[in-house]
Design a protein that fits this description.
13 strands; Amidase signature (AS) enzymes; single chain; alpha/beta; two-stranded antiparallel ribbon; 39% helix; 11% strand
């Protein structure tokens, strides 16, 4: 296929996405032009295109919305209409959607309202709640391009043409069974192997908080949509940081579970035969409680029954209760209980974090310590070593799968991926692959031994570790040079949450002229720091627990977030008396 042909297909696809937006929700060319020059699209800017009723609904988080629907004070149609309209506007100003199926969503909302009217109970815990999906998950009747032009009009990974648009990913089916309303699929990078979001179909998705910056990737559209309040719960996927990076870059909450905790059945996966370190389904939310809500809801469907790759492990409320019992509502350590012991990973000593990240880590450390919990330095085995092993394994096919997908349309690899391991080359030899896999297991053992050694001084093992997501806030496009902070944790298959902390501030985070680079990569990263450009870029942190500790890492995230809000003097945190309990039930 010549360039004109694949370009024409991409152009037609872009037009078809916009055509699915209701005329009354379309912005004028003048408004779109104004948005293109706007630094921050969030809050007041996007709200000028929404109604007062919409804004009221969009200001609520997932638990508030399902509670309102369950009590009858809100209808699913009201909620779905508000989020569809917000998503429509978000795409027109932020370029964050691949698929729109608002009409089907509104019809589903009407059916759910009819069910509620008839039975006076909800269909399930997510009854009437709009949930967005990364364009890696199949929804019946809808394309799944995964950022490839060749899959326009089709579904990546579905080999039988007769099944095109007839397959639904298990996670989507589970969401429907819980009462959720599916309404859109969000943008991803070409190949799904990139930490920013850009493809030859819709172009680039930038950061709504600061359009000088990237929204991250590969679940970048999810993060961007959530930053614009076009979604309150979303589904992504992570194989090197693809949930955690967009969550942090867009100032929202996220979780990367251990692979095998949730189903990836019938999802579009690049190089699906690589099962040594597979991708994992992950979740986004505008609230910390939304993460736990999603974990508990999805696990209530017993996904292991339909997908043998899922470990039969129900949601363990007792673990949540155990950890939340150790803290008060404001995150302070509860008298008579063992305070949390948390590791702080300030730097991997390969690439030092920029000033906004260092300040964010100090804020979290201060919040935890002032809340009465223990903090210790974290100096584990080299994350750089782990990244190298993991990256070599997940790209061992020599990018054969990627180039097979590109050949479907003849589209070129986007330039940014030319230097990121996606050039075609001979696949890795089997014995080398096995040697790398063995080294990965050795690294896991060494890291586990280090974690266990944290009990040597006081008899208490570290509960979780706090570390950067990246050595910078939401990054300037093309300036993401060091992914070790996230990718090392994929080699370990750990359970990892992300919480927002602050935003880059040119006044608080000046360039450190005294910084002595550790190496060439560190120097390159530091030269890329511009306080003016980064101003307003979100800063988040990873909260890390071990394998299959999703309940634990979520509970600890709640405590840390509460302590952070307390330290900031947030009204929402100070309204609760310090002796109250953190809510353990959803």
């Amino acid at each position: 296929m010549d360039p004109e042909e694949w370009n024409a297909r991409a152009t037609a696809k872009r037009a078809s996405i916009l055509a699915k937006i209701k005329p009354e929700w379309r912005l004028s060319p003048e408004d779109i032009a104004k948005a293109s020059t706007q630094r921050d699209l969030t809050g007041p800017f996007i709200q000028q295109f929404l109604g007062a009723d919409d804004i009221s609904i969009l200001s609520m988080d997932s638990l508030q919305l399902v509670e309102g629907i369950g009590k009858g004070s809100l209808t699913s149609l009201q909620v779905t209409t508000a989020f569809c309209r917000a998503a429509a506007v978000a795409h027109q100003i932020g370029n964050c959607l691949h698929e729109i199926f608002f009409d089907e969503a509104l019809e589903r909302a009407k059916q759910l309202d009819e069910y509620y009217e008839k039975h006076r109970v909800t269909l399930g815990p997510l009854h009437g709640l709009p949930v967005s999906l990364k364009d890696q998950f199949h929804v019946k009747g809808v394309d799944t391009t995964a950022g490839y032009v060749g899959y326009i009009g089709g579904n990546m990974g579905i080999k039988d043409p007769s099944r095109t648009h007839q397959v639904e990913s298990q996670i989507a089916t589970e969401l429907r069974s819980l009462g959720a309303v599916l309404y859109c699929k969000t943008s991803v990078p070409q190949t799904l192997f990139y930490i920013e979001t850009k493809n030859n179909i819709i172009g680039e998705t930038l950061n709504p908080n600061n359009r000088n910056l990237s929204c991250g990737g590969s679940s970048g559209g999810e993060g961007a949509l959530m930053a614009l309040r076009g979604s309150t719960l979303g589904v992504g996927a992570d194989i090197g940081g693809s949930v955690r990076i967009p969550a942090a870059f867009n100032g929202v909450f996220g979780i990367k579970p251990t692979p095998g905790r949730f189903s990836c059945k019938d999802a579009a996966i690049t190089n699906a035969g690589q099962t040594a370190y597979p991708m994992t389904v992950g979740f986004f939310s505008t609230s910390v409680d939304g993460i736990g809500f999603m974990l508990k809801s999805i696990l209530s469907t017993q996904p292991w029954i339909q997908d043998p790759a899922v470990v039969p492990m129900p949601f363990r409320q007792e673990i949540v209760d155990e950890y939340l019992a150790r803290a008060n509502a404001d995150g302070t350590a509860k008298q008579g209980h063992t305070p949390l012991k948390l590791g702080i990973f300030k730097t991997d000593r390969v690439v030092e974090p920029h000033p906004p990240i260092t300040r964010g880590l100090k804020m979290v450390t201060h919040a935890i310590e002032s809340a009465g919990h223990k903090v210790v330095d974290w100096a584990p085995p080299s994350h750089e070593t782990a990244k190298k092993i993991h990256l070599s394994i997940i790209t061992a096919d020599g990018a054969e799968d990627v180039h097979k997908q590109l050949k479907l349309s003849g589209e070129p690899l986007i330039p940014e991926l030319e230097t990121r391991g996606m050039r075609a080359r001979p696949p890795m030899e089997l014995l080398k692959f096995q040697d790398l896999a063995s080294k990965g297991l050795e690294f896991e053992a060494h890291y586990s031994d280090y974690w266990n050694s944290t009990a040597n001084d006081d008899g208490q093992i570290v509960d979780a570790v706090i570390m950067p997501v990246a050595p910078h806030a939401a990054v300037i496009p093309g300036k993401y040079y060091h992914i070790d902070y996230t990718e090392a944790l994929n080699l370990l298959n750990y359970s990892v949450a992300v919480i927002p902390v602050t935003k880059a501030d040119k006044n608080l985070d000046p360039y450190d002229c005294g910084h002595q680079p550790l190496n060439g990569k560190d120097e390159k990263n530091w030269k890329a720091y511009d306080p003016e450009l980064y101003h307003g870029g979100p800063v988040g942190v990873q909260i890390v627990a071990r394998k299959f500790e999703e309940e634990k890492v979520w509970a600890i995230s709640k405590i840390i977030h509460a302590a952070l809000e307390r330290a900031k003097g947030s009204p929402s945190s100070t309204q609760s008396p310090s002796h109250g309990d953190i809510s353990a039930r959803l």
